[in-house]
Specification:
eleven-stranded antiparallel β-sheet; six-stranded antiparallel β-sheet; 22% helix
């Protein structure tokens, strides 16, 4: 049996480190050689956004015409990706859907084709996002194999050897054509001259089994051959002859009896007759390409000003949804502002062209508090604890630790506290001999090599806002002064942080920690990850999304929480946290660790994380959340529905 070999070359003129003036050069050096390979009779898959297609049409309309002819003759295939390269698990479903529709419209208009296979941008995928692709009419998606395989210990290696199907959040199914990070990195090493032709052929002999139905030779950037995008100082300056090496390899493989080249869509008939694979789990709810440094925080919390840029995108989405009539151009502009390449190695020139407007930073003000007979406020002088009781909430704050939450209990939970502080000594283990607070701020500054926290002795103040009790304090920290406040409203607790210094530090900035007080069970969580449905996850073993990958990359993952809400708890009780991403597009992170026979379960939010794309001078935004109680609905057929006692607005 011959093994079908296939490619999906990713063409991207929005590449963060490529200036518009270089488009002509990129087309000449990288895109024309691809078509010449197709003309030799080697079928190739090309994936590009409508934006890239339009840019090529502007500088090289002859390329478009030739590509169109090759599509019609079956020498190559267009793989869809949408109007813009956006990171689906970080973006609301409405935008993901619009992006795919706009892309299909442009492909039809410029090339006369409607692709049925889509390449997931940056190979970032969630189960909920698959539903968006199913709804858009796609028959299959191209997804990287390596990370889902490493995240699912029950997967067998043989699953890579032919197309499979994936299970979406709604329980539906979509075919998958595998991409393979190790394989495309091997291919790049060969093309860049680090491996000989014989070395590469030996690699294929090693990895391909006799019963391999199909294998992805390449599924990544076209702009890294005979051109260097300029992201890294280690990139070669003068290069040539790399496309000749590609052609030599492809022709050599074509002449071998045990291989045959195929277009990606031709492989769908070879899909395995097996059950659909659940792609994600509680520990890896989102899968991304390549090695661990490529987690979703790089498009959300680092770059030149990712937090501000994403918040502006959410604000523009809210404006669009509030309008009676919106046209395609409005949605296209939003998709292009949400493009991933504006968030990584973006050049200064292209960043300046965005002309982003800083968000106003206004210190909160509160009226004087007047006693209310339905409220009980008591301050324990000896322990410096502030106790507040309303008919719906009981709250204790720690005046020795920046008004961190000691306990928070709701009437819906029979006033059994769900979150608060696990004090020093709670875990009989020296590695966890610390206090685990709730609702505090923690900065780890890389240049200053220090930690800054708001866990200091403070004097509380009482105020009033919209007829509700407010408790607040101000602290002068090494990173700048911070105001923390709480507002109690029915069975909802609002809390927020105001930063007087708005210049984003080169640091990880984490805040709003929530520590579950029940340590007898692992936590569960539910949130939305780019799809239309919430996704429920029960944690089963240790995880820590805030754990650093290296001294350069400060976190390992996060949750897109694209509806601005997350539920978090264990056993039958938990909390729902709501926030407005249009004001601050923070990302939640979760950890769960087994300590002897107990569990430490925590959730927090991040405003900034470090990686090689982080640049100084971004804006640090104020952040506000609303906490309300939830109860797990065990009668739900999906076991993922919550009875929300209150909905924050």
């Amino acid at each position: 049996m011959n093994t079908a070999l296939y490619t999906v070359f990713h063409l991207n003129l929005a590449f963060s480190s490529i200036e518009k003036e270089q488009h002509v050069e990129v087309v000449e050096r990288c895109y024309w050689p691809l078509l010449k390979i197709a003309e030799l009779g080697i079928p190739v898959g090309l994936e590009l956004t409508a934006y890239t297609l339009e840019c090529i049409n502007t500088v090289a309309p002859a390329w478009i015409e030739q590509f169109k002819a090759l599509l019609q003759s079956g020498h190559c295939e267009l793989i869809a990706s949408g109007d813009s390269q956006i990171i689906g698990p970080l973006i609301p479903a409405e935008v993901n859907s619009a992006n795919l529709k706009l892309g299909q419209d442009s492909y039809q208009r410029l090339l006369g084709v409607l692709p049925k296979v889509a390449y997931l941008n940056e190979q970032a995928v969630s189960a909920g996002l698959l539903d968006v692709y199913i709804d858009a009419g796609f028959e299959a998606v191209v997804v990287e194999w390596d990370n889902p395989f490493s995240h699912n210990p029950d997967w067998q290696k043989e699953l890579l050897m032919q197309p499979q199907s994936l299970k979406s959040a709604s329980g539906r199914h979509i075919k998958v054509i595998w991409n393979h990070a190790i394989a495309f990195q091997k291919f790049q090493r060969y093309v860049h001259g680090e491996l000989t032709l014989e070395d590469y052929l030996q690699y294929l002999l090693k990895v391909l089994k006799p019963d391999t139905v199909a294998f992805p030779v390449y599924g990544s950037d076209a702009e890294v051959f005979d051109f260097r995008p300029g992201r890294y100082h280690t990139e070669a300056e003068q290069i040539s002859g790399e496309w000749q090496r590609v052609e030599q390899l492809f022709v050599t493989l074509d002449a071998m009896d045990n291989y045959c080249w195929r277009l990606p869509s031709k492989l769908l008939a070879k899909k395995a007759d097996t059950l659909s694979l659940p792609l994600t789990n509680a520990h890896y709810p989102v899968s991304v390409k390549k090695q661990a440094k490529y987690n979703i925080t790089r498009w959300a919390l680092s770059g030149r000003n990712d937090l501000l840029l994403n918040s502006i995108c959410y604000r523009k989405l809210a404006e669009l949804k509030s309008q009676q009539n919106t046209d395609d151009e409005c949605w296209r502009c939003l998709c292009r502002l949400w493009a991933s390449d504006l968030r990584t190695h973006l050049t200064q020139t292209r960043y300046d062209a965005l002309t982003l407007t800083k968000m106003a930073s206004v210190a909160p003000t509160f009226a004087a508090w007047h006693d209310d007979k339905d409220l009980r406020v008591h301050y324990d002088e000896a322990r410096r604890r502030l106790e507040v009781q309303t008919p719906k909430i009981r709250l204790i704050l720690n005046g020795n630790r920046g008004l961190a939450i000691e306990t928070l209990a709701f009437a819906s939970h029979n006033f059994e506290a769900v979150v608060g502080t696990l004090s020093h000594g709670h875990f009989d283990h020296i590695s966890y001999g610390a206090d685990f607070y709730s609702n505090h701020l923690l900065l780890e500054r890389f240049r200053d090599r220090d930690r800054v926290a708001d866990l200091n002795r403070v004097e509380y103040q009482l105020g009033e806002q919209d007829g509700c009790l407010v408790i607040y304090c101000r602290q002068a920290l090494n990173s700048g002064a911070v105001v923390k406040w709480y507002r109690l409203e029915d069975e909802r607790l609002y809390t927020g942080f105001h930063f007087e210094e708005t210049c984003r530090p080169e640091a990880s900035v984490r805040l709003g920690f929530m520590t579950l007080l029940d340590c007898q069970q692992r936590a569960w969580y539910q949130t939305r990850l780019g799809g239309y449905e919430d996704e429920f996850f029960q944690i089963t073993h240790d995880m820590d999304q805030g754990a650093p990958i290296s001294s350069i990359v400060s976190s390992s993952s996060a949750l897109g929480a694209t509806a601005g809400a997350i539920c978090f708890g264990n056993q039958f009780k938990g909390i729902r946290i709501d926030w407005d991403p249009a004001r601050c597009a923070a990302l939640p992170m979760i950890s769960s660790k087994k300590i002897d026979e107990q569990y430490l379960n925590r959730l927090w939010f991040s405003l900034t994380e470090a990686d090689e794309t982080l640049k100084p001078n971004g804006q640090l935004l104020d952040f506000e959340i609303c906490i309300s109680p939830v109860v797990l609905d065990t009668d739900s057929p999906k076991s993922n529905t919550y009875l929300k006692e209150e909905t924050c607005t």
